[in-house]
Amino acid sequence: MAQPTLTVAEKAVSNHQSETNTSKIKVIKRSGRKDNLDVSKIRKVVNWACQGMTLNSITLEAGLTTRLRDGVTTREIQENLIRCALEMCSPSEPDWRYVAGRLHIWSLWKDTIAKRGYLYENYHKTVQAKVESGEYDAKILQYSEAELITAGSWLKSDWDLDYDYAGAVLLSSRYLLEDELPQEAFLTASLLIALVESPQNRLTWAKKFYEAIAQRKISLATPILANLRTRTGSLTSCFITAMDDNLESIFTEVTNTARISKSGGGVGMNCSRIRATGSWVMGKKNASGGVIPWIKILNDTAIAVNQGGRRAGAVTASIDIWHLDVTEFLEMQTENGDQRRKAYDVFPQLVITDEFMRRVVNNQDWTLIDPYQIRQEFGIELAELWGDEFDYWYQQIEKHLDTKVTLYKRINAKELFKLIMRVQVETGLPYLAFKDTINRANPNQHDGYIPGVNLCTESFSNVKPGDKAHCCNLISLNLANLEISEIPYLCELGVRILDNTIEITEPPFSAAKNHNQHYRTIGIGCMGLADWLAKQKLSYTNLEVINDLFEEIGYWCTNSSMELAKERGPYPAFPGSQWSQGNLIGNKPPQWYQENAKHPQRWLQLSVDIQTYGIRNSHITAIAPNTSSSLVQGCTASVLPAYSRFFYDKWAKGTVPIAPPYINDYYWYYQENKTLNQQVVVKAIAAIQQWIDTGISMELIFNLNQGVYDPNQPDKAIKAKDIFDTLIMAWNKGCKAIYYIRTVQKDDYKESEQQCTSCAN
Question: Is 458 a catalytic residue?
Answer without folding.
Answer: yes
